[in-house]
Amino acid sequence: MHIFLWCGFILFILGMLAIDLGLLRPKARVMSSSEALRWSGFCCLLAVLFSGAIYLLYEYGVMGVVAELRLQDTLSTENPASAEVKSGLGMLPHSGAEAAMQFLTAWIVEQSLSIDNIFVIAIIFSFFQIPLQHQHRVLFWGILGALIMRGGMIAIGATLISSFSWVNYLFGALLLYAAAKLLFVKEDSFDPSSSRLYKLVTRFLPTTKEMHGEKFYIRKEGRYLATPLFLVLIVIESTDLLFAFDSIPAVFAITSDPFLVFTSNVFAILNLRSLYFALAALISRFRYLKVALVGVLFFIGVKMLIASVFHIPTAWSMVVILGALSIGILASYVPSKGRRCEG
C-alpha cells in the first residue's frame, strides 16, 4: 500500500511542475518578484499542509505500520550499540506527531541550505548571460533532474545507514567539513567554466555561442548543436549534486525514514525556483545569513557525532535551527537599516 503512496506523491509533484511550466507560463517571460513570492508562499503552505497529512498517515495510516515494523526490526536485529545510535538520533518516528515534526524540521533545513544555492545559480546565469525570460525553463528542467538525482542519493543513503552504524559518524564529519567550507569559501570566486563536467561537455559536444530562444539544441548544417541554455543546465545540475552531498546528510541527521527524507527534499526543491526569482537580487543584503547556515550545519553535524552519548530531540533541533536563521536574518537587516538612516 505504501508503494502506491510513493507513486501518488511523485505523480502529484510532476503534475504541479507540468502545470507551472505549461499552463501558468506557456510563453517565455520574466517572473515578477510579487508572482515569485506568491508561488513561494503557496509552496510553503503546501509543505505545512503536507505535514498534517504526514501526521495522519503515521498516526492512523499505513506509514505508521511500516515505521513501527521498521523500528522493531532495527531494535531486534542490530547490535545494541547500533540500535542505541539510531534511537538516539530519533531517526524513526514513533508517532504521527513525531513524524510531522521530523518532516517540518527536515524541510526547514533543506530550504535554508538551498538559499546558498540561489547565489551560485545567479552567478551561473550572469556568467552565461542568460536572459531573465529563459531562466525559468532552465530551472524547471534543473529541478526535475535534481529530483531524480536526489531520489537515488536518498535511496543509497538510507541503505547505508540501515546497514552500517558508522555511516552516521561519517555523515556527521561531512557536515562539519561542509560548515567549514561554507564559512571560508567565497562564492564570488566561483567560475562556472571551471566545472569538470562543463569542460567535458564542451570538449565532446558540438555547441553554439548564440542563444536560440528556449531551445537546448538546434540543427545547423545537418548536425545538432547545444545552445548556451543547455550548458547552463549542465552546470546547474552539477552544482546541485555538490550541494546535495551537504544537505542530504543533514536531513538524515533528523530522520532516516526514506519517505520523510524524500518528501522534505522535494518540497524544498520545488520552492527553489520561486525563491530564486524572489531573492536573487536581495540575497547579498543578508550578509550574516551565511554564518547562520554554517551554525546550522555545525549543530547538525555535532548532533550526529554525539547521538550515542546524548540525544537531542527533534523539537530542540527545530528551535535551534529556526533561532540561528532568525538571528542571521535580523543581524543582516539591522545594520543595513542603520546605514540607510545615516544616509
Word description of this protein:
It contains twelve helices and two strands, in the order H-H-H-H-H-H-H-H-E-E-H-H-H-H. Strands 1-2 form a two-stranded antiparallel ribbon. It is an all-alpha fold and 343 residues long. The chain has helices at residues 2-24, 33-59, 62-77, 80-89, 96-128, 132-163, 167-184, 196-204, 228-252, 258-279, 289-305, 314-342; strands at 217-220, 223-226. Residues 78-90 have low confidence and may be disordered. Strand 1 (217-220) and strand 2 (223-226) form a beta hairpin. It has one domain.
| Element pattern in H and E | HHHHHHHHEEHHHH
Radius of gyration: 21 Å
The count of strands amounts to 2
Poorly predicted parts: 78-90
Q: Spatial order of the strands in the main sheet? A: 1-2
Helices and strands: which structural class?
Answer: mainly alpha
Largest sheet, in brief, is: 2 strands, antiparallel
Tell me the helix content: over 70%
The coarse silhouette is globular
Strand content: under 5%
Number of helices: 12
Mean pLDDT, all residues:
80
How far apart, in Å, are the first and last alpha carbons?
63 Å
Number of domains: 1
